[in-house]
Amino acid sequence: MSAVREGLPEGRYGRSADERADRTLKIVGAVLGVVLLALMGWFGWYYVVDNKISAEMIKFDVVSDSEVQVHLEIRKDADAKGVCTLRSRSEDGAEVGRKDVRIDEPGVRLDRVYSIRTTAKATSAELIGCTAR
Q1: Spatial distance between the Cα atoms of 44 and 50, rounded to a whole number of angstroms
Q2: Which listed residue, of 6, 14, 93, 105, carries a Cα 20 to 30 Å from 66's Cα?
Q3: Residue 128, CA distances (Å) to 13, 28, 48, 100, 123 in order
């Protein structure tokens, strides 16, 4: 004779451990989701509203084997000052020039051309970023 074991009567002894674990996981997941959304909102706010200075590289021109000219359009608060970092690279991707340019001039929109001295022939230039001081 084989004995068939029956489960406990449904609902007689309260919630099972699996049901409690499922509920706990749902609560933890909801809390982590809210925290993640709050962090994304804060970083977005900081990036869009709190950023005092930003720039965009309009174009670059390789003038010679030892110089690249970069045209930047800078947008900033009227009284903001900062630094923008420019970099030039050779054909194999190695960095051949880097320059930090100070943005101290008044105004909210500036168009400037900056020269980067290079150690070898550059094939590209890029704006790494700008930070306010």
Answers
A1: 9
A2: 105
A3: 64, 39, 18, 10, 16
Per DSSP, the chain holds a count of helices (H) and strands (E) of 1, 6
Two structure tokens written together for 119: 């150690």
21: helix, coil or strand? helix
Q: When comparing pLDDT for 78 and 65, which is higher?
A: 65
The mean pLDDT of 16-39, rounded to a whole number, is 89
98's CB contacts (< 8 A; 6+ apart) are: 85, 86, 87, 88, 116
Q: What pLDDT, in 10s, does the model give residues 73-130?
A: 999 988 889 999 999 999 999 999 999 999 998 888 999 999 999 999 999 999 999 9
Q: In angstroms, what CA-CA distances link 119 with 71, 95, 109?
A: 20, 9, 31
State whether residue 45 is helix, strand or coil.
helix
Give Cα separations from 101 to 22, 46, 80, 106 (angstroms): 56, 23, 14, 15
How many Å apart are CA 81 and CA 53, to the nearest integer?
8
